DNA sequence: TTTATATATGCAACTAGTTGAATACTTCTG
DNA sequence: CAGAAGTATTCAACTAGTTGCATATATAAA
């Protein structure tokens, strides 16, 4: 598991001190495309990482809004992250509800499955549309990007490939359900 | 979440009483391609499902091997499963370690990432090879399959699409790391 | 004969992740 | 001026999932 690594990575990626609130927001946008979580878990994990000396925190007093605590990655945290990167990682399990449903698809009318597949397809198409928009907006000239940007581009490409694959499968399954059952 | 649904689905899919041991084996082969778990969790979940009247159990005495407990899905369990299928499901989050690593890829030498990507690619290629073998062996004449078989075919197609997509992305990323960094 | 492998189930302790609520302050909108 | 929305943190209780251990029998291999 690696929520802690994900948090360390996000902090390192940002390159500047962040509050739990900032991280929670990031986890609902850029990073969130591959890692969902809640703000509670982030706050808890931050406290844990600090107790393990992976992070240091500083309390920032603010006049116009509530005070906040910003976190910085320590050298130890950075080293820990690099050590983790160096270890080979396995692909993550899938746990896709739709596949479980398909497995026992004979329990329900085909129309029900088709409708669900169509809804799923719409969700993936929407994500794909968003990713393609990002690609056009921020990554149209890949070669001129700074190093960090190139890595983010690769992540975005993964998202695009992933969503496209899902859409294709939805289409295949819908077509199959419509035509290959007598 | 849906481990319980996954267990119910597997039992219904099998169509005959199963022991926890049988299910654990199934979860490491066919179902396991989209859902990994441990035998402990299965036994616990089975006990829970039984207490909720979704399953009934029967103790089978065996001479040649240890006694076992086999489970059957009740009408209530079946209805519960169908109700779950009828609810729309969201795509599952990704949580792919490699993407987190890529996000902070600038921390390590590119060669390290390339090697990891190559190893990942091999894993996905091996899975794809296996899936294609299944496809050839059991699904070469799709039209003549019984209904259950057709749904399994769709699941297998999802696996094939998924693995192919991963392989393509690995290739793209390796190529990019080799050629698009000055 | 010892060892490994397969069958078969379960407890205890842990880590990870979710849900719901509470608190508190500020700015913007009606 | 009331209420909604945004900023900011935390507690408590729960569900889900992992790791390690314990137990028991039978067969096949070394």
* Amount of helix of chain A: 55-70%
Alpha-carbon distance between the termini of chain A? Answer: 45 Å
Kindly report the average pLDDT value of chain A. Answer: 92
What is the tally of beta strands of chain A? 3
Gyration radius over CA of chain A: 21 Å
Q: Which runs of chain A of at least 5 residues are low in confidence (pLDDT < 50)? A: none
Describe the secondary structure blueprint for this structure:
The structure is a homodimer of 182-residue chains.
Chain A: H1 3-14, E1 18-19, H2 20-27, H3 39-51, E2 55-60, E3 68-73, H4 75-86, H5 97-103, H6 110-138, H7 147-179
Antiparallel strand pairs in A: 1-3, 2-3
Helix pairs in contact in A: 1-4, 2-3, 6-7
The first copy, chain A, binds a DNA duplex (30 and 30 nucleotides) through residues 1, 3, 19-21, 24, 37-41, 43-45, 47, 62, 64-69.
């Amino acid at each position: 598991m690696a929520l802690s690594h994900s948090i360390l990575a996000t902090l390192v990626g940002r390159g500047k001190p962040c509050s739990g609130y900032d991280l929670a927001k990031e986890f609902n946008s850029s990073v969130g495309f591959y890692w969902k979580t809640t703000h509670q878990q982030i706050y808890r994990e931050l406290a844990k990482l600090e107790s393990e000396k992976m992070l240091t925190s500083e309390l920032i007093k603010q006049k116009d809004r509530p005070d906040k605590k910003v976190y910085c990655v320590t050298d130890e945290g950075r080293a820990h992250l690099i050590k983790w990167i160096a270890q080979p990682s396995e692909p993550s399990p899938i746990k896709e509800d739709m596949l479980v449903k398909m497995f026992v698809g004979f329990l329900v009318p085909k129309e029900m499955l088709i409708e669900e597949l169509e809804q799923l397809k719409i969700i993936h198409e929407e994500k794909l549309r968003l990713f393609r928009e990002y690609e056009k907006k921020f990554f149209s000239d890949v070669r001129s990007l700074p190093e960090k940007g190139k890595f983010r581009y690769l992540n975005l490409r993964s998202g695009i490939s992933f969503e496209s694959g899902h859409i294709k499968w939805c289409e295949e399954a819908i077509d199959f359900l419509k035509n290959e059952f007598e």
